[in-house]
Amino acid sequence: MLKLLYLLPVIMCAIWYWYLKQHGWGIKQGWKGFGYILGFNFAIAISLWTIMLLTQR
User: Fold this and answer.
1) Which of 34, 47, 57 is nearest to 2 (CA)?
2) Whether this model's pTM surpasses 0.85
3) Which of 25, 33, 41, 49 has a CA 20 to 30 Å removed from the CA of 56?
4) How would you label 30-47 residue by residue, b for 16+ Cβ within 10 Å and e otherwise?
């Protein structure tokens, strides 16, 4: 399961890109959304990494 977590940001960015195209917006207009998606997934990754480190002992 943990090995497949790299797909989460890819899928979320693809959905966001699709949403932008459906509303006639460009990538420059939705750039902040991509940043939020990547930041959110980075926070999840750091949290899971910390949990793994804490529970190994």
Assistant:
1) 47
2) no
3) 41
4) beebbeebeeebeeeeee
User: Position 41: which residue type?
Assistant: N
Q: Cα–chain-centroid distance for residue 57?
A: 29
pLDDT, tens only, 2-35: 677 889 999 999 999 999 999 999 989 999 999 9
Residue 43 CA from chain centroid, whole number: 9
Domain edges within the chain: 26-57
* Amino acid code (one letter) for 55: T
Going by the DSSP 8-state scheme, the letter that residue 6 receives in this structure is: G
Q: Give CB contacts under 8 A, 24+ apart, made by 17-25.
A: none
Beta-carbon count within 10 A of 19 CB: 12
